């Protein structure tokens, strides 16, 4: 449980960090809260020779809401997400999700940028970001670009982020309507056995006017359930339509056997969690 | 202070003696981060050791190349079995009469086994060098399932003793077989089973788990080459035994070895045995002449130092149709891993598993235990219990439930009609124990009334109806448990560790100004000895507990004792403390009589003083006597006021308790919610009710962990699957329910103050209560028994197997 040797850098601007990362290349990793990276280093599953700490870069820590758009700097901690009144107002599902991540100690360190950039299917923020249809801003040697969360994840620990890019912020539209993040886990501090993020709005006619569903830790990437989401729009939400949606979502997932249980159980649990999330979101819509 | 003005009650209260909820004196330093643990020890020039460990569960070691590691600046040496062999230290004896490799000698037998020991200037260099040691393995077929150990195609694990037909505990029938241990009357029991009107049968598995103390195991060895003294600080639950073993193994005279257990961050049995890390640290210090520290990390702790349980208990229980139990039969297959390193008294290879008749008057019984080698870590320690008592309690408390199902009888009532009756004590059990005292019916009725048992059963019946009608997906389980422990090992005539009789000791010095220090052969790991032993003494010698220092753990100063585990501290060292206190009082009485100018027999003891009979205004307090003992020449009495007592207990003590757990279970997600937990403990005389409550809370939480998810699991290839806290379940406050604690008080007739010990009861009784709740919830749907741990997916699977998801 002792990491390999590494050098530590603490650049004070994004430009300096990007330059440093370009210079050091493959041997370097950025470090945010360290609560995913350091455990991997202690197991020597990750052995970076250089750590570039982003914590001195002031621009990377902010939460702003303007014109219905939420922008969160990559270095904003999960505790700060929970504590922000503006965010609770504009996108209450973020707080609901953040509160189900790990425990308070970890949330004081862990950042939204690290959580979404990490690419661990167990992380809760990626599915949430897909549910919110968020965009990630990436800065690299070739400048800046935006990638939709729904197009970011390729496989476990593989994303479309280039190794030389730094994720600087996430942006998404404030959500109205009903929302829920439901998670089954073995204990506080555990990753999800199954979890689901759901946003639903109710139109004037009482039918569902918008829907978005994404799931955590049930495949090697977060799963955005596009078909199920669009099928719900325009329909009334009742036991039958929920069952149809759940069925459709379950077809998208590919859980694997692990200590949380065999895939068969996880599918069942996923169905339960989803149903709970849809019920809860609709009751708030 | 005007002592005379105080009433007897006030003086009594001022002592803070027996029965006082005195705050723990240890907590000031622990809660401020001022404890001093092994890893806090820092010495000039100290070196660090770290292990190269096997990734293979079973393999020949073809070669070990240390050259790249030795080139790393700061690496001092890399030890392998070849280096230890000339010293005869490449293997070491285990407490169970087997031997264990210190470093891999030609082969490895479990994943995580110690292969080489790197010694470096700091722990970071050591860790880097570990990665550079190249070990060439030739993998062998692993043996994971103990039931396959004796099949014709089973690999032979212990080639070193493959031909030995006799082991430390009698005949071995196969190279992978360690021992067979039989107790009770086989023929009589089998004859009852074949003729009894009702026989219930079940395989009850108590899975492999681990004590996982907060502080992992470690040691600092310091060989002073100038004076020839070896000092060894370590996480030792039995420091004196470690000193004797270290002397015998190393050849260093025992007076030249000082073993110190500093503050210990939990032991739970994990720190009873001797580990390769200790031996390597000692050798490394002798070789280098510098202090050497070895501290394992969490994953090493879980995967290589002593596990607990892993008992497959096949049971048969015979009864009359009315529910009177006639006989009990048990055959246990005990998975001991690669070496038999169980920490049991020498003559008990399966510990006190023969307490498995539990709280019941069972006239005839038979127990056989077969120990088996597998490619898993060695251990089999008593994880917060007396040797194998948790396994025994779980077995009988499941068997009684299984019998109740067969008889279609209420399980609480079935227990009641079979309890040993109050007037039957001392009770001779069919498997050889003499239970000292008990009043099970009173405790049981109190527990059932406290939870409104009848009301709970009615509610449960309604819940079953609602479930069957499709109105709910939640089941309600009522987990009952009445356990009897056997603790306080133990009488020297039948209990020893490596030959050392399991007595314990206390040495007291009263200072001239009337305060005192007492040293004991035990060592606290969180039990609060500094608090409670002072209370025992306060009541015996009339000096306030606040004025008594308790010291343990340093073999240069403490009297010889066998350490702390198996709830033995209060039953054995606590008894020694009381007896030593009585010796102080006897001498003090002579001094007081002299000072009061009366005959010895004309004074009597009263709380904190000797009073002249019939003249209460004439007295001498213990404080005054203490001063006189150092300042006056008293004819016929030696100066000073000291005493020592070595106590050999005449019998074990038998604490008991009644626990009831009420649980709600979601059959779709497998999630469980503990609605209520009631724990009544009878530990005899209660020394400190607050500490008892704390111990019960802690032990119940461990029991909850074990029952609901905590396990050391291996895959079929012998890879450990739960080797970190990511998967090894340790509950947080969030998962921990509220507990209601209660008590009855049935003193032990043979213990000087009637105390029986309590620290382990909640783990022993808690596991069956939690597990029975799960099993009970599914009873109405056809379940007889489902194995622990009851984590979400296994609970879900139980429901699924019963067709509840159709
Ligand atoms: C016991 C425990 C339980 C946990 N439980 C949960 C849980 O239930 N749910 C959950 O979601 N998470 C959980 N976590 C993870 C935690 O939320 C992490 O903090 C988070 O996943 C990563 O954030 P970080 O800031 O710590 O990132 P780091 O660990 O610093 O980095 C993670 C990875 O992302 C990269 N990275 C970080 N920031 C950037 C950036 N701005 N641009 C590009 N790459 C970047 C790093 O190079 C690294 O590869 C748990 C962690 C622990 C230790």
Looking across the biggest beta sheet of chain A, what order are the strands in? 4-5-10-6-7
State the CATH class of the largest domain in chain B.
Answer: Alpha Beta
Biggest β-sheet of chain B, characterized? 7 strands, mixed
Number of helices of chain A: 11
So what's the oligomer here?
heterodimer
Name of the CATH architecture of the largest domain in chain B: 2-Layer Sandwich
Categorize the overall geometry of chain B.
Answer: globular
CATH fold-level topology of the largest domain in chain A: Uridine Diphospho-n-acetylenolpyruvylglucosamine Reductase, domain 3
Strand order of the largest sheet of chain B: 3-7-1-16-13-14-15
**Poorly predicted ranges of chain B (pLDDT <50, ≥5 residues)?**
none
Q: In whole angstroms, how far apart are the ends of chain A? A: 47 Å
Total E-strand runs of chain B: 35
Helix proportion of residues of chain B, in percent? 25-40%
Give Rg of chain B in angstroms.
28 Å
Q: What would you call the structural class of chain A?
A: alpha+beta
CATH architecture of the largest domain in chain A: 2-Layer Sandwich
Shape of chain A: globular
Description:
The complex is a heterodimer of chains A (about 280) and B (about 800). Chain A is α+β, with helices and mostly antiparallel strands and about 280 residues long. Chain A has helices at about 15-25, 35-40, 80-85, 85-90, 90-100, 105-110, 110-115, 125-130, 225-230, 240-250, 265-285, and strands spanning about 5-10, 30, 50-55, 65, 70-75, 135-140, 145-150, 155, 160, 165-175, 180-185, 195-200, 210-215, 225. Chain A has 3 domains: about 5-55, Uridine Diphospho-n-acetylenolpyruvylglucosamine Reductase, domain 2 (2-Layer Sandwich), CATH 3.30.43; about 60-175, Uridine Diphospho-n-acetylenolpyruvylglucosamine Reductase, domain 3 (2-Layer Sandwich), CATH 3.30.465; about 180-285, 2-Layer Sandwich (Enolase-like, domain 1). Chain A is built from 11 helices and 14 strands. In chain A, the strands form 4 sheets. Chain A has a 5-stranded antiparallel sheet. A 4-stranded antiparallel sheet of chain A has the order 11-12-13-14. In chain A, a hairpin with a 2-residue loop joins strand 6 (about 135-140) and strand 7 (about 145-150). The longest helix of chain A has 22 residues, at about 265-285. Chain A is globular and about 60 Å long. In chain B, helix 14 (about 530-540) runs parallel beside helix 15 (about 570-595). Chain B is globular and about 85 Å long. The relative contact order of chain B is 0.12. The mean pLDDT of chain B is about 95. Classes of the chains: A alpha+beta (about 280), B alpha+beta (about 800). The interface of A and B includes residues 2, 265 and 273 of A.
């Amino acid at each position: 449980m002792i990491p390999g040797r590494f050098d530590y850098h603490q650049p004070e601007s994004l430009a300096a960090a990007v330059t440093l990362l370009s210079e050091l290349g493959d041997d370097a990793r950025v470090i945010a809260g360290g609560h995913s990276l350091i455990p991997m280093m202690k197991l020597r599953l990750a052995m970076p020779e250089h750590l570039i700490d982003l914590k001195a870069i002031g621009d990377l820590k902010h939460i702003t809401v303007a014109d219905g758009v939420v922008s969160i700097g990559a270095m904003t901690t999960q505790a700060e997400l929970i504590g922000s009144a503006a965010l609770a107002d504009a996108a209450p599902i973020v707080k609901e999700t953040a509160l189900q991540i790990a425990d308070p100690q970890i949330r004081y360190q862990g950042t939204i940028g690290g959580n979404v950039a990490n690419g661990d299917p167990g992380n809760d923020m990626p599915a949430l970001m897909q549910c919110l249809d968020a965009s990630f801003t990436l800065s690299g040697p070739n400048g800046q670009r935006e990638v939709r969360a729904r197009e970011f994840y390729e496989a476990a620990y593989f994303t479309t982020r280039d190794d030389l890019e730094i994720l600087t912020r996430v942006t998404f539209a404030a959500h109205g309507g009903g929302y829920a993040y439901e998670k089954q886990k073995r204990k506080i501090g555990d990753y999800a056995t199954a979890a689901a993020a759901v946003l639903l709005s109710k139109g004037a006619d009482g039918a569902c006017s918008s829907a978005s569903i994404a799931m955590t830790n049930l495949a090697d990437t977060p799963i955005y359930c596009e078909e199920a989401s669009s099928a719900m729009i325009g329909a009334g939400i009742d036991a039958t339509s929920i069952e149809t949606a759940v069925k459709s979502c379950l077809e998208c997932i590919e859980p694997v056997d692990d200590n949380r249980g065999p895939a068969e159980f996880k599918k069942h649990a996923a169905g339960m969690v989803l149903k709970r999330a849809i019920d809860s979101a609709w009751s708030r819509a | 202070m005007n002592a005379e003005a105080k009433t007897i009650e006030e003086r009594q209260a001022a002592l803070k003696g027996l029965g006082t909820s005195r705050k723990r004196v240890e907590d000031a330093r622990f809660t401020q981060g001022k404890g001093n643990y092994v890893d806090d020890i820092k010495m000039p020039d100290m070196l660090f050791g770290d292990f190269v460990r096997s990734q293979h569960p079973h393999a020949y070691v073809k070669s070990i190349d240390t050259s790249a590691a030795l080139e790393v600046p700061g690496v001092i040496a890399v030890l392998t079995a070849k280096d230890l062999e000339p010293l005869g230290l490449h293997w070491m004896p285990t407490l169970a009469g087997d031997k264990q490799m210190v470093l891999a000698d030609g082969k490895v037998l479990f994943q995580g086994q110690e292969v080489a020991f790197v010694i470096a200037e700091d722990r970071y260099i050591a860790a880097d060098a570990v990665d550079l040691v190249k070990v060439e393995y030739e993998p062998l077929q692993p043996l994971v399932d103990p039931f396959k150990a004796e099949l014709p195609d089973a690999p032979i694990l212990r080639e070193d003793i493959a031909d030995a037909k006799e082991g430390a505990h009698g005949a071995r029938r196969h190279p992978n077989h360690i021992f067979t241990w039989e107790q009770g009357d086989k023929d009589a029991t089998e004859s009852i089973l074949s003729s009894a009107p009702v026989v219930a049968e079940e395989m009850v598995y108590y899975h492999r788990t681990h004590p996982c103390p907060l502080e992992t195991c470690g040691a600092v060895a310091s060989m002073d080459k100038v004076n020839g003294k070896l000092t060894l600080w370590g996480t030792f639950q039995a420091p004196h035994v470690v000193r004797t073993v270290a002397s015998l193994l190393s050849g260093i005279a025992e007076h030249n070895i000082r073993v110190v257990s500093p503050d210990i961050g939990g032991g739970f049995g994990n720190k009873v045995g001797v580990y390769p890390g200790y031996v390597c640290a000692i050798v490394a210090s002798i070789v280098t002449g510098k202090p050497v520290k070895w501290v394992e990390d969490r994953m090493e702790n879980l995967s290589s130092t002593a596990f607990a349980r892993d008992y497959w208990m096949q049971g048969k229980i015979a009864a009359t149709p009315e529910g009177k139990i006639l006989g009990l039969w048990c055959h246990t297959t005990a998975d001991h891993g690669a070496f038999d390193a169980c920490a049991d008294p020498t003559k008990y290879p399966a510990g006190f598993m023969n307490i498995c008749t539990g709280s019941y008057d069972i006239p005839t019984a038979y127990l056989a235990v077969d120990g088996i080698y597998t490619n898993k870590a060695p251990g089999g320690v008593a994880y917060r219990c007396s040797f194998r008592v948790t396994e025994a309690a779980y077995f009988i408390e499941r068997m009684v439930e299984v019998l109740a199902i067969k008889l279609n009888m209420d399980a609480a009532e079935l227990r009641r009609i079979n309890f040993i009756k109050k007037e039957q004590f001392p009770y001779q059990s069919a498997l050889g124990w003499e239970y000292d005292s008990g009043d099970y019916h009173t405790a049981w009725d109190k527990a059932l009334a406290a939870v409104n048992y009848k009301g709970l059963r009615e509610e449960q019946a309604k819940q079953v109806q609602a479930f069957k009608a499709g109105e709910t997906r939640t089941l309600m389980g009522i987990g009952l448990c009445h356990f009897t422990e056997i603790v306080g090992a133990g009488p020297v005539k039948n209990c020893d560790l490596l030959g050392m009789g399991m007595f314990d000791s206390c040495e007291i010095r009263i200072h001239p100004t009337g305060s005192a220090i007492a040293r004991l052969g035990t060592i606290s790991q969180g039990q609060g000895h500094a608090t409670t032993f002072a209370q025992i003494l306060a009541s015996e010698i009339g000096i306030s507990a606040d004025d008594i220092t308790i010291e343990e753990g340093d073999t240069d100063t403490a009297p010889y004792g066998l350490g702390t585990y198996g709830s033995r501290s209060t039953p054995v060292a606590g008894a020694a403390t009381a007896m030593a206190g009585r010796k102080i009082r006897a001498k003090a009485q002579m001094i007081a009589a002299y000072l009061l100018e009366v005959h010895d027999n004309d004074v009597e003891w009263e709380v904190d003083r000797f009073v002249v009979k019939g003249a209460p205004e004439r007295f001498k307090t213990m404080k005054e006597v203490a001063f006189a003992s150092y300042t006056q020449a008293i004819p016929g009495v030696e100066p000073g006021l000291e005493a020592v007592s070595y106590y050999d207990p005449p019998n074990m003590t038998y604490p008991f308790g009644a626990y009831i757990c009420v649980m709600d279970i979601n059959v779709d997600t497998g999630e469980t919610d503990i609605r209520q937990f009631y724990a009544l403990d009878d530990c005899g005389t209660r020394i400190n009710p607050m500490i008892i409550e704390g111990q019960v809370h802690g032990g119940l939480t461990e029991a909850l962990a074990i029952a609901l998810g905590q396990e050391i699991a291996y895959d079929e290839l012998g890879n450990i699957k739960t080797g970190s806290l990511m998967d090894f379940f340790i509950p947080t406050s969030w998962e921990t329910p509220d507990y209601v604690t209660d008590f009855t008080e049935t003193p032990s007739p043979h213990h000087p103050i009637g105390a029986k010990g309590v620290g382990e009861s909640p783990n022993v009784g808690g596991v069956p209560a939690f597990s029975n709740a799960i099993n009970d919830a599914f009873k109405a749907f056809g379940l007889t028994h489902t194995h622990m741990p009851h984590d979400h997916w296994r609970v879900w699977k139980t429901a699924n197997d019963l067709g509840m998801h159709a």
